[in-house]
Amino acid sequence: MAAMPTAKSSAKAPAAADPYKKLGTAKLLKIHELMVRARLLEERLIKMSKGGDGFFWIGGPGEEAFNVPLGLQVKKGHGVNFDFLHLHYRSAAVVLALGAKPIDAIRQMRSVGTDPYSKGRNFVNHYAIPEFNVVPVSPTIETQYSTSIGTGIAQARAKTDAITVVNGGDAGTAEGDFHSCLVWANRPALPLPILIVVVNNGYGISTEMRTQHGEKNISDWAKVFPDMPGKTINGNDVLESWTALEEAFSYVRRNRKPYLLEVKASRLYGHSSSSGANRIPEADCIEMLESKMTQLGLAKAADFKKTWDAEAAAIDAAHKQVQAEPFPAVETVWEDVFADGLPPSYPTKGGS
Ligand SMILES: Cc1ncc(C[n+]2csc(CCOP(=O)(O)OP(=O)(O)O)c2C)c(N)n1
Q: Is residue 2 part of a domain?
């Protein structure tokens, strides 16, 4: 029989039982700092797009409570023995949690030559980070689910515990690439160690998901494949995200088989600058985390303010630095178009 609680232990029980406390104050503060960094970066990128300091913005404010824990749980490094990441344009908080610097996103936004992801050629939040196995983000939605099959096969064949992570949106799951990924990942001849993530913000640009999808949950696709777990979580909650990711990462790492994770999250500035990029009244995961930590006595408003102020100052300084950096030189325009250099027959002048 279980021991009867004493007056002392039962008085302490409610606070100690709160699962948020199990993550620990230091980790929660680290997660909070990265969430704030990602939010302030995105807000600066939006401001740049509206102020003529860039052309187009698309990004992930609202997804920080899931994306930061995702980045922190990656086995980070280069090559087949480290996790591969096939991300999309809303994944800024993932790469910041991996250690990417906000200044590089600001460089890509302004299209300066120092942009390490595309040398000023691609639009913002299209990362390519070889040292972290972040494969180039593609502006065509959902194609990352097809490319993830490739690194999944390499890791299924290698003697490694590393896995592939792919992340995209709900609307894109209507496309064939998503279903190719499900089929290839579940092939009995060679199951693939892929953590298949779909962030469901309820919209594809301005089309509501519930008008287009007959399936109740996107994670229900897992029911077709008896070996693949599927789960839907509230991605606005840090603890729920952290715990679900721990379970999913460890399942895929250990079993060398896929896992489908659907993450419900807010889209706090709408689709992109094309739809105005104005603040939308949806749940704000940073406010939620701050309120939870305050309520549990893990931090105070003044602690959060310090973080917001320090991160804002760092973004200001980075932006100022980028404004002094050069745009790509005209003569570099044909560089990196082909891996082996431009063929002599390639038309570089005039019309067709
Ligand atoms: C192959 C392709 N089709 C259409 C588009 C235009 N497009 C850009 S974003 C987007 C909506 C994507 O919605 P979802 O997959 O839910 O991701 P979210 O942007 O909501 O994160 C569409 C249709 C595109 N970029 N690529």
A: no
Q: Which residues line ligand 1 (CB under 6 A)?
A: 90, 139-141, 168-172, 201, 203-205
Only one residue has tokens 């310090």, namely 306
Stretch among 10-19, 176-185, 292-301, 315-324 having the lowest mean pLDDT: 10-19
Position 266 scores a pLDDT of: 98
Determine, yes or no, domain membership for 338. Answer: no
Q: How far is 33 from 129, CA to CA, in rounded Å?
A: 22
Alpha-carbon dihedral sign for residues 249, 255, 258, 262: negative
Mean predicted confidence (pLDDT) in 71-81? 98
Ligand 1, atom 8, lies closest to the CA of 141
Range of the domain at 265: 23-332
CA of 123 to the centre of ligand 1 (A): 15
CA–centroid distance, 204 to ligand 1, in Å, is 6
Q: Please check whether residue 197 is in contact with residue 169, taking contact to mean a CB–CB distance below 8 angstroms.
A: no
Per-residue buried b or exposed e for 190-200, using 16+ beta carbons within 10 Å of the residue's own CB: ebbbbbbbbbb
pLDDT at 221 over 90: yes
Ligand 1: which residue has its CA nearest to atom 26?
140
DSSP element (H, E) containing 309: helix 301-323
Could you tell me if residue 120 is inside a domain?
A: yes
Residue 351 resides in a domain: no
CATH of the domain at 76: 3.40.50.970
What average pLDDT score do residues 241-259 get? 98
Percent of the chain whose predicted confidence (pLDDT) is above 90:
88
Report the domain count for the chain.
1
